[in-house]
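Appendix B. Raw example, untouched.
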Amino acid sequence: MVSNESSLSHVNQAGEANMVDVSGKEVTSRLARAVGTIVMSSETADAIVNDQIKKGEVLAVARIAGIQAAKKCSDLIPLCHPLALSKVQVDFKWREQTVLEIQVMCKVNGQTGVEMEALTAVSVAALTVYDMCKALDKGMRIEGIVLLEKQGGKSGTWVRCS
């Protein structure tokens, strides 16, 4: 049973899930950055780097998938507000030969934050890499999807410490 004193913003006094009313919030510049990794075999990593995946350019397709995912976040996460994103940037970096880092930055001028959009974009970009490479490497692992930073709104700036 959920208490009527719930501090969860997506739960009403009856304990039911609801969409938060942001109409009274000030429009501010908001930013979120998220990161995750996909671990793969060296053979798969080499095939990505050398553009030898039969389905096409893996990182180009994953970048577009991440951008689309951020734009469609409210269609995927039930209580997210649809946002008119002003920027979505998806970057890839090889941490090690077999560990691909995916980092996303989302920006909006709005009444609610873009954390879910950034996290969703990282997740879908990683899933796209997996999908495009699974014929070579079914053992790939998607790991460590976390929020790195959020800026804007009433709570201001938050940065992950570790």
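End of appendix B.
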